Amino acid sequence: MNSSWDHWATRLSTEIASAGRWRVQITKEDLGKVANFATNDYLGLSQHDQVRSAAASAIDRWGTGSGSSRLVSGTLSVHQQLEATIASWKRSEEAIVFSSGFLTNLGVMTTFASKEVEVFSDELNHASIIDGCRLAKGEVHIYRHCDMDHLRSLMEQHANRKKRSLVVSDLVFSMDGDVAPIYELMEICDHFNALLVVDEAHSLFQEVDYEIPTLRVGTLSKTLGSLGGFVAGPATYINLLRNLARSYIFTTALSPSDAAAALEAVSLLRSEEGKALIAKLRGNVDLLREEWPSPIIPVLIGSEVHALSMAKALLERSMLVPAIRPPSVPIGTSRLRISLSAIHTVEEVFALKSSLTELGLLF
Question: Is residue 329 within 8 Å of 127, Cβ to Cβ?
Fold first, then answer.
């Protein structure tokens, strides 16, 4: 064993644990029967009979894995069907599917944020966008969260006629549950002739028609209850991703079961049943916090230790609400992150609200 590396690993582990930021994985089976307010399966489609059946049928037909990357021999007809369906759903010319949402943002940013590009990114964007910016060769400018005046100022200061501009933002922010001022973003991008990249991963209640060049990034692992990510947009841009995005080219294609599950989930989402599920989710959100714009409801606490103790207190009441701590959120803003689903019952939501009140937590 290398003593210097042992010392480093032990010291760093101790520092993380002392700060209340050490993570321990617990299986759902370990937790027993709890009301799960920690899932991003917003409509419960991962458990839907039709989605499960579609995944099982795909395994019967193609096996458990795709066997190769998309550009070698890993592309199956189900991948192409899924991409065509997503393009139609997102009202875009074309779409491309990646093997994960994280890989999707890495692919977009490293392809489009080249050294000839000035990038403008919201300070609370998802880690996959942040890491994509770090890997990209363009100069990155961070604007204050949803502060359009600051964005305009930065773009006026740094927008270079010899360089293209790119603005990237989550639509719904994963830790705060708030929504980007999308129409102001569109106005700004139109004014500066910038490409807008919008990550719609957590978006359910926001229907946006983009009238400017836009790449719409999304995930198959949340609302659609499967695994993977996608980009929808102009065909020329999507074809560039197929040819240049390293996180697409150099990874094994999405499994056939995941692709088939997502394909069935999109079909369900666009049906009357899907509309009813979204309405049910909207109702659950309103029960807990009226007029809140997303299924993600943060309860700001502050310290890591207090957040952990509140999460433990809720778990003792058979409610799983995770404590979110740095580096997932800024230091001093540890919180409980409530994630509501259409499959939560009214009784479960009311019980959660009552418990939060008893614990003196305001949100």
Answer: no
Residues 255 and 345 in one domain: no
Q: How far apart are CA 168 and CA 133, in angstroms?
A: 10
**Domain range enclosing 200:** 49-269
- For residue 337, what is the enclosing H or E element? strand 334-339
Q: 206 and 339, same structural domain?
A: no
DSSP per-residue codes, 218-232: EESSSTTSS--EEEE
Phi, psi (deg, nearest 5) at residue 139: -80, 130
Rounded CA gap, 112 and 46, in Å? 32
Q: How far apart are CA 116 and CA 138, in angstroms?
A: 6
Please indicate, yes or no, whether residues 35 and 113 belong to a single structural domain of this protein: no
Question: Which one, of 258, 316, 290, lies nearest residue 97 by Cα?
Answer: 258
Assess contact for 164 and 115: CB atoms under 8 A. no
Report pLDDT digits (tens) over 163-193. 999 999 999 999 999 999 999 999 999 999 9
Segment 25-49, tens digit of pLDDT? 888 787 789 999 999 999 999 999 9
As a whole number of angstroms, the distance between CA 106 and CA 298 comes to: 27
Residues 346/287, Cβ–Cβ less than 8 Å: yes
- The CA distance from 120 to 141, in Å, is 5
What tokens appear for 164 in the block? 């293209």
Is pTM beyond 0.90 here? yes
Residue 303 lies in a domain: yes
